[in-house]
Automatic annotation (TrEMBL):
The keyword Signal applies. PANTHER family: LYSM DOMAIN-CONTAINING GPI-ANCHORED PROTEIN 2, MEMBRANE-BOUND LYTIC MUREIN TRANSGLYCOSYLASE D. Coiled coil: none annotated. Keywords: Signal. Residues 1-20 form the signal peptide. This is LysM peptidoglycan-binding domain-containing protein. Pfam families: LysM (PF01476), SLT (PF01464). The keyword Signal applies. Residues 348-391, 422-466, 482-526 form the LysM domain. It comes from Arsukibacterium indicum. Belongs to the transglycosylase Slt family.
Length: 533
């Protein structure tokens, strides 16, 4: 049913009514709720009657009114609402999703809080490209507007890019930086991707949105199959995966609730229709703690606006820019201009000792090999004992960078009640499967505790955390020493798997240089738990 409210009545409401009021038109009764002077329905430079007619009357009845500029609305949600164009059929999947959202006001409040800094930017980018404003709601479905969201399928960021798709659309991913979490860059990439999907898949936005979830190949095959059978190729006619058949209705349910929130007793938490952030160039790498001081923010506040940076500093190879609150940007620029480049990072002199490698030094100082090579003008990885190196290091203790990748994983590994923590350093050739068997945990548990997915590749020197029940009964091992002769084709990983030991233990027991290959006939000492083999 389409409800109307008379312009005269709404004018009265807009003029300052401060309590719940009701007005009955000739066709239906409509309750308009207000808790204070309703700024949500105010437009700069427009009369209350213009707003009333534009928001509540159909287009045919508003044809004679002066055009209402959505950019002039006080509330950003209404700026989106005024430009919604998708038809929302009242199908069962949409109604089910709408019922879920309409019963979870607190969830939508949390979403609005997370969206607060970034939504205006997203809306502006959509308008510049003349793309549907419905797409501004897509991050709710993808991540609830959480730029740190990470799925079991390895999708990351507010727009939930997979690694390969992110790379395809220009999102850099390395030790220092993950563009999938950078709100500015990932928004650019997401809109590029959606525009490409729209142009590729019948110029149908619902097909494009479905492909954003299921992949363009899957939607393309479904379209071709329908064409072959002379069937329609719109989203509702395609044979699609179950997840995708729910994904699009989730978005349309949100669209329906935003179109007519009062019908579902939902309040979209006010977000001012004005810019909140500025993108400020840094002209080079900078420690996030130093940048936070210049911006008069906490490190956590700066990292929350710049979630793409994994470590304690920005990427030495860029992007050389930071997202800052608009109110802090000018002062930051002034103070940064007064800060010499040498003072934007801290360095430490290091003398190479026996056993050092660039990889080991980088791990110890929480940096990467390329940064050390660049700083010291090294063309390769060769270093010599006694050589002096400059090592970039953080200005503050690691725990001060609360939202760094390391600290986020540490929180995910937080101690469970009644459990004991075990740490393991990955050795060359290790796999999650090997480590899980050695420590009597599942691969799924090991991946979860360490912020990974089960098919992630391990790196030598990487630290893994495991938890065991402190009161769990562990069978006492019965061990014996086995002298094993290396055979042709053997590797440390294969031997470790065969005897249910770890590569690290074989290396320790036999003082093996892991940079050399095992030789057929070589004798190894293995301490084997005979209850496990």
């Amino acid at each position: 049913m389409h409800f109307k409210i008379s312009a005269v009545t709404l004018v009265a409401l807009l003029s300052g009514c401060v309590s719940t009021s009701e007005s009955t038109s000739s066709t239906a009764q409509k309750t308009v709720k207000t808790t204070s002077t309703p700024a949500l329905l105010q437009v700069k430079g427009a009369s209350a009657e213009q707003i009333a007619n534009r928001l509540w009357y159909g287009d045919s009845e508003a044809e004679q009114l002066p055009p209402l500029d959505a950019a002039e609305l006080e509330d950003l949600w209404q700026r989106i609402q005024l430009q919604l164009t998708f038809n929302v059929p009242q199908t069962r999947p949409i109604v089910e999703q709408r019922n879920f959202y309409s019963q979870h006001q607190s969830y939508l409040d949390r979403v609005a809080n997370r969206a607060q800094p970034f939504l205006y930017y997203i809306v502006q980018e959509l308008e510049k490209r003349n793309m549907p404003l419905e797409l501004a709601l897509l991050p709710i479905v993808e991540s609830a507007f959480d730029p740190f969201a990470y799925s079991h399928a390895r999708a990351s960021g507010m727009w939930q890019f997979m690694p390969a798709t992110g790379s395809r659309f220009g999102l850099k991913q390395n030790f220092w930086y993950d563009g999938r979490r950078d709100v500015i860059e990932s928004t650019r990439a997401a809109l590029d991707y959606l525009q490409y999907l729209y142009n590729t898949l019948e110029h149908d936005w619902l097909n494009a949105i479905a492909a954003y979830n299921a992949g363009e190949g899957r939607i393309g095959r479904a379209i071709r199959a329908n064409k072959k059978r002379r069937l329609p190729t719109d989203f509702w006619s395609l044979d699609l995966p179950a997840e995708t058949t729910v994904y699009v209705p989730k978005l349309l349910a949100l669209v329906d609730i935003l179109k007519r929130p009062d019908d579902f007793d939902i309040v979209w938490k006010f977000i001012a229709n004005e810019p909140k952030i500025a993108v400020v160039p840094t002209d080079g790498q900078i420690d996030l703690a130093i940048a936070a001081e210049l911006a008069e923010l906490s490190v956590a506040e700066l990292q929350a606006l710049n979630p793409g940076f994994n470590q304690w500093a920005t990427d030495p190879d860029g992007p050389h820019q930071l997202v800052l609150p608009l109110t802090k940007a000018d002062n930051f620029k002034r103070l940064l201009a007064q800060t010499p480049a040498a003072d934007r990072l801290q360095w430490q002199s290091y003398t190479v000792s026996s056993g050092d490698t660039l990889g080991k030094i980088a791990r110890d100082y929480k940096t990467d090999v390329s940064a050390i090579r660049r700083l010291n003008n090294l063309t390769g990885n060769t270093i010599r004992i006694g050589q002096h190196l400059l090592i970039p290091m953080s200005a503050k203790a690691a725990e001060k960078y609360e939202l760094s990748q390391q600290n986020r994983i540490a929180r995910a590994q937080g101690r469970a009640a009644g459990s004991v923590k075990t740490e393991y350093i990955v050795q060359a050739g290790d796999t999650l499967w090997d480590i899980s068997r050695e420590h009597k945990v599942t691969v799924a548990e090991l991946a979860k505790w360490n912020g990974m997915v089960q098919r992630d590749t391990l790196k030598p020197g990487q630290k893994l955390v495991m938890w065991h029940d402190s009161d769990s009964s562990v069978t006492t091992a019965v061990t014996r020493t086995v002298n094993y002769k290396v055979r042709k084709g053997d590797s440390l990983a294969r031997i470790a798997q065969r005897f249910s030991v770890s590569i690290a233990e074989i290396v320790k027991w036999n003082n093996i240089n892991t940079e050399r290959y095992l030789q057929p006939g070589q004798q190894l000492k293995l301490i084997v738990d005979v209850t496990q083999v």
